[in-house]
Specification:
The complex is a heterodimer of chains A (373) and B (293). Chain A contains 14 helices and 10 strands. Chain A is of the alpha/beta class and 373 residues long. In chain A, helix 2 packs antiparallel against helix 3. Chain B is built from 14 helices and 9 strands. The chains are: A alpha/beta (373), B alpha/beta (293).
Chain lengths: 373, 293
């Protein structure tokens, strides 16, 4: 049954643009559509640019999807043919590391090749990955069950009423005192409420970590689902923020959405550059401030460890605690052998086993019991 | 959707851009359009962007254009209604109760009410602009509370009743995007992402804000600052830093320092972080040589 009022002919092209946006996963509320139409009327558009400005201001696409928005706009209003996939991850959630020394072949490492015989590639191989048949392990179940209780917390700035506490609750005290002619018989107290601490998970998805990548992504998803302020990034030859897709409830859906965004699965590793890039984007860097930072990486890196050392040093000064989980650390007697891990050892609070889901989960759940070193 | 006619004499984004320029703010087309639409549609204007791109300045300029007082609410973690709306003056209430003796007294009268920015804006919607600065620092609870405030512009004070705005106040929100804001908040507002200005525009901003600076100096500073913004710094120089740097270097130059040495000696005005300075110093000479070429 169609009871909608008929749109004026002129407005149809704008309303159908909104429909196109919605079809491409842009959230547009009805009030925004109305505002969009009113804005166009207000501007008495002289050209397409006016319409674009009206669309940007009223439909408010998230900045990181601006490129996709522009493409859809051009497709709809200009009928441009050369439209790629609506969202190819090449937006400001992805930082492409500056290419250095591509083309001129790196001398192969000889003397300081690491003990496991693995080497890190420097080349960029862009691949897409699909996640299928995801099994749930005990470690995952444990994380989901215990994370809400056991993740690190900190004192917030909001206050709550308590029987005892460092602050006086004057409002309540005054209300109570009115009943007793202004005599204060009992002082109300307040204390600072506990809040979940920010968590930042940086996952190495390069070739040398290939066997762990899927499990690590599942853990990241479980963590994002279980706690309110977790940020997740993947890095290899690029740095990609995958927090948003991981917020989708259904795991398979979430991981495939993330897979779609990340384009450097199983490629080379440039950890230092990735962390530098992370710190260079002000709002990313902000995610680390006061956070429990967990880096899951084998630390196999070609090239100078300087960039890595500086980045980790900076990160450790900013964060509450930095944990580096490496599959190479398989026991308490572990001593870092790779140049990268030796360089960063001084700056991390923990350098522990990250070779299995169980050990990663155990470490994350134990973070809440620790104090910053 | 009612379109407001109370933005006197400004009937297009271009007219607003011109008025902002007269208030010493150079807005690009996107910002002028968003601000104009916000005013005309009676919706709050939400400005997002990196620190130092001129978001707060834009709000000040809009207030100047409208000839209104700017009321600023600086957000911080844990900000709540008592800091944003109103608070009772408890010591005074206590005293009043004591002094009243057997008389009856209204301890929730106007005299005991401490007005905070949001209440002040509601009570004088036609003579103020409310700036809610760095909303991303506040927590989710405050954001939800703000959403409610922005949808119907009324506040209920349990002891006194409801305060409603006679007309929709002009509200500007800014965010540095240290966290993602709630979708609903973005939806309720007219939204604009402010980027760093183009080199051309930034040079014009510097010359407008610092009249002593020569054009060549402004251009050199813009080139150097653009270069610095591409480096992994913890605090990239914003527009204000670029203006200060151009001014400081001009001052040193007049005192006898040569170019590009004048820039180098005044770098502390542009980069305010010890680590950033340390990181840049080996490359600074080459950078400045390139910028002043």
């Amino acid at each position: 049954m169609n009871t909608e009022p008929r749109l004026p002919r002129a407005a149809r092209v704008f309303v159908s643009f909104v429909a196109l946006l919605r079809a491409n996963n842009f959230a547009v509320a009805p009030e925004q559509t109305t505002a969009f139409l009113t804005a166009i009327e207000l501007l008495g558009p002289r050209d397409l640019e006016d319409i674009r400005q009206a669309a940007l201001a009223t439909l408010a696409p998230p900045p990181e999807r601006r490129a996709a928005f522009d493409r859809l706009f051009d497709l709809h209003f200009r009928g441009s043919e050369a439209v790629e996939r609506a969202d190819d991850g090449e937006d400001d959630e992805t930082v492409r590391l500056q290419e250095e020394g591509r083309g001129d072949e790196e001398p192969l490492l000889s003397d300081d090749a690491n003990e496991s015989g693995l080497t890190a590639a420097r080349t960029e191989a862009l691949v897409e990955r699909r996640f299928a048949q995801l099994s749930t392990t005990d470690a995952l179940r444990r994380l989901t069950r215990e994370a809400p209780r056991r993740l690190p917390r900190r004192r917030g700035h909001r206050r709550m009423r308590t029987r005892r506490g460092p602050f006086a609750d004057l409002r309540r005290t005054l209300r109570d005192s009115v009943r007793s002619d202004g005599e204060i018989l009992r002082l109300g107290h307040m204390k600072r409420r506990q809040r979940p601490r920010k968590m930042l998970l940086l996952i190495d998805v390069s070739g040398s970590m290939k066997s762990r990548t899927e499990e690590n992504m599942k853990l990241a998803h479980a963590l994002v689902q279980a706690a309110p302020n977790v940020e997740v990034f993947t890095f290899g030859t690029r740095l990609t923020r995958v927090t948003r897709p991981l917020r989708l409830k259904r795991r398979e859906q979430a991981l495939n959405a993330a897979a779609h965004l990340v384009s450097d699965w199983d490629g080379g590793t440039r950890i230092g550059d990735a962390l530098q890039a992370f710190l260079a984007v002000p709002r990313f860097g902000g995610y680390a401030r006061g956070a429990a930072v967990v880096i899951v990486s084998d630390g196999l890196e070609r090239g100078e460890p300087d960039a890595l050392r500086d980045a980790v040093a900076k990160l450790s000064r900013r964060a509450w605690r930095v944990s580096w989980l490496t599959p190479l650390a398989t026991g308490p007697a572990f001593r870092p052998q790779t140049e990268a891990l030796i360089a960063i050892e001084r700056f991390v609070d923990d350098l522990v086993d990250g070779g299995s889901s169980a050990s990663i989960v155990a470490h994350i759940l134990a973070l809440g019991r620790r104090r910053a070193a | 959707m009612a379109v407001r006619s109370n933005i006197v004499g400004i009937d297009s984004p271009e007219a607003l851009e011109k008025a902002l320029r007269a208030a010493y703010y150079l807005a690009d087309e996107g910002l002028a359009t968003a601000a104009y639409l916000g005013l005309a549609l009676g919706k709050p204007l939400l400005l997002e962007g990196a620190p130092g791109v001129g978001k707060t300045e834009a709000a000040k300029a809009i207030a100047a254009v409208l000839g209104r007082r700017l009321i600023r609410l600086q957000c911080y973690e844990g900000i709540d209604a008592s800091a944003a709306l109103y608070e009772w003056n408890y010591p005074r209430q206590m005293l009043a109760i004591r002094q009243a003796g057997d008389e009856s007294i209204d301890i929730y009268g106007e005299a005991f009410l401490i007005e905070r920015p949001m209440l002040a804006a509601l009570r004088a919607p036609d003579s103020t602009v409310l700036l809610i600065d760095e909303i991303d620092r506040a927590d989710q609870e405050f954001e939800a509370f703000l959403l409610e405030f922005l949808s119907d512009f009324q506040i209920s004070i349990p002891e006194r009743g409801t305060v409603r705005a006679a007309e929709r106040p002009v509200v500007v929100l800014t965010s540095n995007r240290t966290r993602d804001l709630h979708e609903a908040l973005r939806r309720r507002c007219v939204y604009h992402w402010i980027d760093y200005p183009t080199a051309e525009r930034e040079a014009r901003i510097i010359m407008m804000r610092a009249s002593s600076v020569a054009e060549a100096t402004a251009r050199a500073v813009v080139a150097a600052v653009e270069r610095l913004r591409r480096e992994p710094l913890s605090k990239a120089p914003g527009i204000a830093e670029a203006v200060d740097w151009a001014e400081a270097a001009t001052l040193l130059n007049k005192g006898g320092a040569r170019w590009p040495d004048a820039f180098k000696r005044s770098i502390g005005v542009a980069l305010k972080d010890e680590e950033d300075l340390h990181f840049i110093s080996p490359r600074l000479d080459a950078m400045l040589a390139e910028a002043t070429a």
